[in-house]
Write a structure and sequence with these properties.
Elements lengths: L2 H33 L1 E7 L4 H8 L1 H7 L3 E7 L3 H10 L4 E4 L2 H8 L4 E6 L7 E5 L15 E4 L4 H12 L8 E4 L2 H10 L4 E5 L2 H9 L2 E5 L9 E5 H6 L1 H20 L1 H12 L3 H8 L11 H16 L14
Parallel strand pairs: 1-2, 1-3, 6-7, 6-8
Antiparallel strand pairs: 3-10, 4-10, 5-8, 5-9
Length: 318
């Protein structure tokens, strides 16, 4: 073999070794990238997820699995579930009505757990100097709420209990911040709202409760996931629920610390979040047939009122 041939052969061999090295490095990089995961969690200014975020225990638990956590705050449940439906979050917590509205709109979600009923955590409130003393007196009045939120069902049931039809009142749909502004201006007669916005209205504005959820609604806090995510990441969902359960157990025993964390996370005064937290119901559980049956009643009520575009079977989101 000539010198030129030997050099060519050497270059060819080195080229093969370089290519093999690049492929190995690429494969290693891909494996490392695949090993890193992110769970995207949607939360609101209430509930156990806010405590979980504030304590940081979930991040510690998932770090061992090379999983990071991204938290995104939403103003209300309908917006959160829209985020879940379009793929910007994987997991989140909402009240009773948002999953029904989302499912009716075609969202591919699944119920994964719920907290016990908390009917005192939502209410219909009126200004402190209002002459209104009963829900029956809301006939012909302007009532504001966030459409599709947990309080939507409270309004439906409160009106029904008072012998009024939904059409008997003038309903305005606004997100909490805008609804509060309208309430403060006197542009509406009543506001249907949940904690901690409810507690803030009571503490800061002197708002008077016309009726809360007691005896009318359950007001569960639900945990939901995007179905594609839940099907591929059952182990992460399990860890999420385990860490939520731990925070629930801790929260029951440490109300002062709960208020401090919630105040830091929400920017609300400690006395406001302490009142809201006093109405919490702790104890996450798997979704039961009984809870699904309660959700079906919501769905049927909203369907009958034409508030959702079509009837749904809640069990399809199990």
């Amino acid at each position: 073999m000539s010198i030129d041939q030997k050099r060519a052969a050497r270059r060819h061999t080195l080229g093969l070794l370089f290519a093999a090295g690049v492929m190995a490095a690429t494969s290693t990089g891909q494996a490392q990238a695949q090993a890193k995961q992110e769970v995207r969690i949607g939360y609101q200014k209430y509930g156990t997820l806010t405590l979980l975020k504030g304590r940081g225990t979930l991040e510690q638990r998932l770090a061992a699995r090379n999983v990071t956590v991204k938290w995104t705050e939403f103003p209300a449940g309908p917006q959160l579930l829209e985020g879940l439906n379009v793929g910007s979050v994987d997991f989140g917590t909402v009240g009773e009505a948002p999953p029904v509205f989302a499912q009716a709109a075609g969202a591919n979600l699944v119920y994964v757990g719920n907290e016990p009923p908390s009917p005192g955590s939502e209410a219909i409130v009126v200004p402190k100097d209002s002459k209104l003393r009963s829900v029956a007196e809301l006939k012909g009045k302007k009532v504001v709420l966030n459409k599709g939120s947990n309080v939507h069902y409270l309004l439906v049931k409160a009106l029904e209990n008072a012998g009024l039809a939904y059409k008997d009142i003038d309903v305005l749909y606004l997100a909490p911040a805008d609804a509060r502004a309208a309430f403060e201006r006197g542009s509406v007669d009543a506001w249907v709202i949940w904690d901690p916005f409810l507690a803030a209205a009571e503490k800061q504005l002197g708002a008077r409760v016309l009726a809360d959820g007691k005896g009318l609604v359950a007001n569960h806090q639900f945990y939901l996931a995007a179905r594609p995510y839940a099907e591929k990441n059952g182990d992460i969902i399990r860890i999420l629920l385990e860490e939520i359960a731990k925070v629930d157990e801790w929260g029951v025993k440490n109300p002062k610390e709960v208020a401090q964390i919630l105040s830091a996370q929400t920017g609300l005064d400690v006395d406001v979040v302490a009142l809201a937290a006093s109405r919490y119901a702790y104890g996450v559980k798997p979704i039961s047939g009984e809870v699904l049956a309660q959700q079906q009643k919501l769905a049927d009520a909203f369907s009958n009122l034409k508030l959702i575009p079509k009837p749904i079977a809640v069990k399809d989101a199990q």
